[in-house]
Each structure stands twice: as C-alpha cells, then as structure tokens.
Recover the amino acids of this structure.
C-alpha cells in the first residue's frame, strides 16, 4: 500500500513538472510573439538606445546601423506606439526610410508592413504616409520570392494602398480572410478602417433622416479614424449625409443633431474665415448649406416655440411675416430669455446643450427672446413680445458671445451700421410690416407684398370683403 501511494505521488509530481514546463514554454512563446517574433535581449536594447540617441542628433542617410539593428528598430516601432510617436515627433520617418532602403531583407520588409498597417490612420492624418507607401509599393512590385505573406500583399497591392472598399470587394467582404492573409491584429488602425466600411454600409441602409442610435454611437466612437479619400470617418459621414439632404431637399432634424455631435456647429467659430478644420475639408458648398439649414430651423424655432399666442400679441403676425423670407436666411443666432428657456422641451434644448456660441442667452427682460438674422445685404435683430425690429447694414454684435443684455442690444441704434428701428405697433393694421417690407424688398431685391404677409384670418376677411365689394359694384 505504501509503495502504491509513493508511486502515485511521484507520478503526480512528474505530471506537474511537465505541465509547468509546457506552461513556461507557452508563456515564452506568447511573449515572443508579442515582441514581434524577436528576442529582446541585451543587443536588442542596445540597438534601440542607439537609435534614440541618433534621433536626438538627427538622422541622415549616413547614419550607421547593421541590418540586425534595423530589424530590431523596425520591430520596436511596429509593436510600441510610444516609440513610433517619438520617431514622428522628430519628423524623421522619411529619413529613416532612406536609411532602411540599403537593407533588402525580407524580415525588415515584414516589420515595415506591420508599421504601415498598425499606424495607417496616424500616418495619413499626419501627412507622413507618402514616402513609406512609395517604398512599400516598390518592394511589392519588384518581389519575386516565394514568401506566402509577401505574395498575399503583392496580389492585393493596388487596394492596400488605394481604395479600401475595393480591397473588401476583392475578398468578397470576408474580413477574417483579409486579417489572415495580411496578418492584421484587431487593434491595427488598418483593421479599424476596414471595419468602418461595415458601419458605412449600415449608414447607407438607413431611411432618410432615420434616428439609429446604434449606428450613430459606433460612428461617434470611431470618428477620428482615417477612412478614405483624405477624410476621417466623421468627415466622410457628415459629407455623405449633407450631400443626401441637399439632393433630397427635405428636412433632416435627426441627422442635424447627429452631425452637430459628430463634427460640431460650423457657425460656432470664425464662420467667415477659412480656418474651419473638418468643415473646410467637407467643402464650402455643404458647409454653407448646413449653416443655412440650421439657421432657417432656428428662425422657425424662434417664431414657433419662443413666442406664444397668449401673451405675445405679435406672435401670428411675426410668424407670417418672416416665413416669407425664410429662404433668404444665411445665418441666424437665437438669444433666448430665461422664461422661454425653462419652457422649452427637450428636443429644443438639445441644440443649446452643445458647447458652442451659436446659441446665446438674453438677460434683462425675462419674458423676451431675440434672434439675429443675417440676410446678406441686411442684418436684422427681432424680438418676441413687446419689442422692435432693428435693421443694420453690417453685423452689429459679437457673434461669439454667449450672453447678451436687452440694454446692450437697444444701444446698437447708436452704431453707424444702424438702418432702422420699427416698433411692433398695430400689427392688425400691418403698419410695422409694411415699413419693414420696404427695407427688405429694397436690400434683398424681393417683391413681397402686404397681402403675402397677412395671417390667414385677416386674409379671409380681406378676400370676403373684396368679393362683397365686387358684387356690390
């Protein structure tokens, strides 16, 4: 019995030792793969240190490295982002490629492709891709060996460096096969750019102005990734949605909110300058269309939600008047009073939540709100409730302010750009409307008449009166 127990214990100990050895081997193998298939010994670390010192002095084609040192350096660049960022910070990528060109080694080529795939978006956004891309293209064009990995890249070289949708099409949209053939890891920026294509397919499958938060949230998470045609994902998506809205010429309130979250309000910073970042990339025509759409919607918001038919005696008359000029609006900025802000519903408040200066607060008279309207050749500040409409030849306010006082706006009448002030008096007689019409028709080259701006009730009375008078005559 004792011999049996002893034999069993010895068997278990041997089994444990073998298991420990296998676990150790597996751990070493995993570490080896994580390190790029290179043993990070003393020689390796010495090569990395030497390269860092050379970077500080400045690389040159005469910089002296052995091909083993270059292999270690390219491996470290491929697997350690902070090391790659150091190279980019010194702006030495192009020089480094020139140093590499003298070493025609398959192992180095593989590391360079790992760098390309891992930092695909970073290189594109930093405008640092061209030299690396040219070199890798030349490698694939001249390659005649039998390495399976390089030959996979050769067969897809036009699409690897070009249009990613064509790459997916070549592989029948089988992302897993692409990953296998090109040895892509999930966290490689090239992998993420390919996955973005799937999101775009889902985006293009949406109904017009459909509010799909699953699709939207995924795009928001990946918005800064380089996508295609020199555009990040956010720029591509905004361009696509705005172009579709322009062609359909229909309201797109859900997409508006999403675009604002995605890329920001083009009215909020230096709208008349060319320093608009992503909005300039999207294109001036689309930017102006989006600004105009937002502004027209804000004017309608002002007319329909910030006025009320109970305490504002001009409510119906103001709405009927300004809707005639809606298509002439270039830009609008709401300055909302405290009472109106409290009563706004969540949908209306959504636009005021964005951290920009496209929406302001009006202080001084709690029940009043105002709107600044840019028609191009004439600018107008219009009030709710008892107030006046004021016209200016140039913008009289700082559009980047977030808070305005009623006193401050009234004092604008002292500016040289002030054209007129018309009180909202006698709306039923259309006194103020006719006066303002004269100014607007003159500046905007329009021909809106008193009859055009009548509210339905008054128009019905007038038509009945005219008909009766005609019968009498």
């Amino acid at each position: 019995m004792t011999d049996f127990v002893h034999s069993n214990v010895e068997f278990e100990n041997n089994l444990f030792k073998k298991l420990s050895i296998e676990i150790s081997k597996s751990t070493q193998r995993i570490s080896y793969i994580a390190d790029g298939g290179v043993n990070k010994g003393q020689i390796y670390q010495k090569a990395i240190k030497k390269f860092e010192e050379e970077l500080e002095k400045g690389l040159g084609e005469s910089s002296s490295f052995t091909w083993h040192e270059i292999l270690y350096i390219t491996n470290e660049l491929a697997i350690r982002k902070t090391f790659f960022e150091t190279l980019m910070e010194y702006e030495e990528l192009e020089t480094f490629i020139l140093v590499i060109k003298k070493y025609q080694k398959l192992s180095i080529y593989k590391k360079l492709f790992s760098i390309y795939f891992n930092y695909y978006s970073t290189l594109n956004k930093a405008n640092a891709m061209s030299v690396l891309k040219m070199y890798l293209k030349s490698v694939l064009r001249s390659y005649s060996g039998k390495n399976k990995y390089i030959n996979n890249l050769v067969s897809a070289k036009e699409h690897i460096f070009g249009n990613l949708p064509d790459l997916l099409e070549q592989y029948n949209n089988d992302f897993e096969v692409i990953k296998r053939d090109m040895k892509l890891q999930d966290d490689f920026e090239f992998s993420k750019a390919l996955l973005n294509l799937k999101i775009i397919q889902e985006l293009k499958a949406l109904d017009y102005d459909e509010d799909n938060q699953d699709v939207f949230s995924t795009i928001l998470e990946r918005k800064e990734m380089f996508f295609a045609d020199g555009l990040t994902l956010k720029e591509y998506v905004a361009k696509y949605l705005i172009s579709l809205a322009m062609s359909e010429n229909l309201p797109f309130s859900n997409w508006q909110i999403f675009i604002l979250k995605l890329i920001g309000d083009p009215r909020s910073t230096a709208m008349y300058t060319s320093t608009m970042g992503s909005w300039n990339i999207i294109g001036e025509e689309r930017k102006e269309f989006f600004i105009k759409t937002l502004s027209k919607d804000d004017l309608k918001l002002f007319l329909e939600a910030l006025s009320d038919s109970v305490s504002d005696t001009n409510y119906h008359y103001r709405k009927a008047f300004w809707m005639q000029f809606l298509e002439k609006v270039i830009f609008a900025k709401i300055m909302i009073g405290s009472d109106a802000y409290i009563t706004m519903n969540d949908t209306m408040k959504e636009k005021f939540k964005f951290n920009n200066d496209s929406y302001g607060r009006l202080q001084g008279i709690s029940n009043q709100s105002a709107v600044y309207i840019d028609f191009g050749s004439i600018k107008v500040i219009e009030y709710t409730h008892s107030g006046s409409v004021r016209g200016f030849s140039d913008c009289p306010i700082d559009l980047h302010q977030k808070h305005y006082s009623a006193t401050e706006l009234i004092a604008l009448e002292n500016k040289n750009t002030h054209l007129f002030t018309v009180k909202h008096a006698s709306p039923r007689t259309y006194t103020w409307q006719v006066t303002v019409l004269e100014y607007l028709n003159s500046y905007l080259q329009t021909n809106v008449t008193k009859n055009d701006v009548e509210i339905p009730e008054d128009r019905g009375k007038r038509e009945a009166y005219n008909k009766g008078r005609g019968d009498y005559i």
